[in-house]
Amino acid sequence: METEKVKCLIIGSGPAGYTAAIYAARANLSPVLYEGLQPGGQLTTTTDIENFPGYPEGISGTQMMEDLRKQAERFGADLRFGVATAADLSKSPYKITIDEEKVIEAQTIIIATGAAAKYLGLEDEKKYAGMGVSACATCDGFFYRKKVVAVVGGGDTACEEASYLAGLASKVYLIVRKPFLRASKIMQERVMNNEKIEVLFEHNAVGLYGDNGVEGVHLVKRMGESDEQRYDLAIDGFFLAIGHKPNSDIFKPYVDTDETGYILTEPGTPRTKVPGVFAAGDVADPHYRQAITAAATGCMAAIEAERFLLN
Q: Does pTM surpass 0.85?
């Protein structure tokens, strides 16, 4: 198998990966970045980004990632298509297999592989992507001011998203599969005490409908052991809050992760427990998951890599 030696390898191409590439390239680390399955990351599924500082008119996720990519290229980052399929972080230089056919031996690695929002698996979720279906209330909630939205989920994230959306929308339905909420007590109270939020327990969303975007959701309500009621509910937006899956599987034997799979780093830094291996962006962030926080940790990781190589 072909082998290549590099000083700094960046895996992933969202705001964290590209920002890391910009900083690493400017520090003459000659970074090599592999873009992964979804070049540009989750943001390429977001239509408009209006909360990233410096864009008063807003910008599309795809355009922003293209701009970051060009900026990294301008400073000499080597950006490549390819997916990291295996990792050996047991000793330096660390080995990452790309597309099962090439091994990169790296002195430092920045893991910026992101996370993927979990979906229900309905065909309609794909059909209405960017047209009423979202997995990020803080990204897209603003577009539903004074409109009616539904949030799917029963945990803390779902309650947080419902509460956030209640500050913008005229009405929020929280669609919960179980007869109870899994969220912490304080989050449950916040939802139950908010007059704009209506919780629909023992409900399943089985489809969406609408001509030019989401106009409603097909629901099934459980009524006792064997009975169910099917009905349609008019909504303008459909938000998924059933969790994210961090793309960390190949690194798990070597770095610490939480029970969901988020990579654990030293508090306030992108350092993992493996010297010279750093994690940035959503793969290590279960809390904020914003483009700006991902970009910030990408910057931190590149500075840490530069310092590590100087020692």
A: no
